[in-house]
């Protein structure tokens, strides 16, 4: 995945290679509970005409302010791939840090893959003080190359108070904490234009066959069912991961994520065959998917009145920042959980972690700030953002839909599966025009070539994993 995200699963850590049979059964049960709770909570979303609602659970009292040192005269740089509204909202979080400490923080726009961008900065002797890394594999690479510095005691204290053990563990390498997961994403969602559904007489699907029926109903009403921002290959990996997790189950998901089974495995064939039920119908996908970026794929669904370019888009909670303000969240723009392909619906997540590259009093303070509920609340109120910080008041999120999604993530605790492509080496799972991204783009062009797609995925994965 790119664009931030989070997969709901049982506790996973980079150091843990194999789950016990007991933990695998627990994973299955917990994922089913989490997915069910998510389905129930999203279906229950109502809200007023502005898409807002009252308290929906979670911590409602603002936590005590995090203690930060005075840093007058200190200049810091923080790099991330975020752009547009996402970048602008994050800068407001940095501005509050500047106000509280006296430091000056510069946002450095980075390019994907960010690990390569950071490498060039390190080679030039000018690394940013902190980088927001979207993959556990990227954190490990930064540690292995000697770039990343461990978190200090203040940041660790904030992590211990504000994060479940699972979110703490995925920021560790060899047992040491390096990453603060500031931003999460629930990527097992499908957003839709409610007016289109009402005009077509379509209902929210709960299973994959229901989704196909809903798509046909929408198509028969004269609207293309799906928008896909396939110009960015990570959107296609999200489709695959949701189908695979639900159909193959958590145990297979974990094995494929670590390349313990091959991409030529029958379970991958099954998932690609399922995807082809949608991807193999060009009339069901808005024209120019391979030239459409992610933001455009969202706006295609929510512009054009009751005749938009498409009715639905599979996208994480962060899609909200791309929904026009004229469309009220929870009323005009609605969302349902990604439908169950197998026995249970998937819940997949991703995230962006703050990793220190230049160790100093200032960089440690900034990491501590990003681990605090104080920082996360600022961006939560702006919308299009989800925090794994359990002490962010649920009421901080700006509408009923966002509050329900956030509550489902926090209530899941350690029961989440992290985005598979983000667990892979970046050469395979996180590089534009290469690896899984490119191969799935090719598969979207030709969904009949399942065996060829599997062979290509396995060849690229074997090279990237070194096995």
Automatic annotation (TrEMBL):
Biased composition annotated in UniProt, kind: Low complexity: 46-62
Organism encoding this protein: Streptomyces djakartensis
Magnesium as UniProt keyword: no
Family note: Belongs to the bacterial solute-binding protein 1 family.
Name of the molecule in the record: Sugar ABC transporter substrate-binding protein
Domain of life per record: Bacteria
InterPro entries xrefs: Bact_solute-bd_prot1 (IPR050490), SBP (IPR006059)
Pfam families: SBP_bac_8
Record keywords, A-Z: Signal, Transport
Region (Disordered): 1-27, 46-65
